């Protein structure tokens, strides 16, 4: 029994250590307070953009924001982000596909992934992720 408890304590410690090291290794941490608007930056090489996908790592089955071929797709968007997100520049001039997230809550804390598919990138290139830039950002919303 005691062995079982110490084993589970050890497992908890290990997962905390793994989580801490994952968080500290993150290259782009962004911090905010509840109610603030944040900009999650992402840059494509130019505005020859076919698809922009913004996802949250723990909610991958739907999108934070999906843009394809000139349109936004609110039906494929997570409910919790509806009416709270927009592209910083709808024209995506100079390839700026940054996301504005308004009125953040502590539940928005997490890892966000930006993925861009450029027009004309052929399949071989795509397999190499060449011409399909992506960016991973970590957002931390702290209680006030
Ligand atoms: C967030 O953006 C909205 C709309 O763009 C604006 O009305 C509001 O004042 C902004 N909030 C903050 C805290 O800047
Ligand atoms: C911001 O979100 C909170 C709840 O998360 C809500 O009560 C409040 O009305 C929202 N503010 C704006 C300006 O949308
Ligand atoms: C965060 O999510 C929990 C569980 O879904 C919910 O009960 C809570 O109201 C949310 N908090 C805010 C600030 O939106």
Automatic annotation (TrEMBL):
Keywords: Immunoglobulin domain, Membrane, Signal
Domain Ig-like: 21-130
Main location: membrane
Signal peptide: 1-23
GO MF term set: signaling receptor binding
Keyword Membrane tagged: yes
InterPro entries named among the record's database cross-references: Ig-like_dom (IPR007110), Ig-like_dom_sf (IPR036179), Ig-like_fold (IPR013783), Ig_sub (IPR003599), Ig_V-set (IPR013106), IgSF_BTN/MOG (IPR050504)
Gene Ontology CC annotations of this record: external side of plasma membrane
Biological process, per Gene Ontology: regulation of cytokine production; T cell receptor signaling pathway
Source organism superkingdom: Eukaryota
Cellular location(s): Membrane
Protein name: Selection and upkeep of intraepithelial T-cells protein 1-like
Gene transcribed to yield this protein: LOC102198157
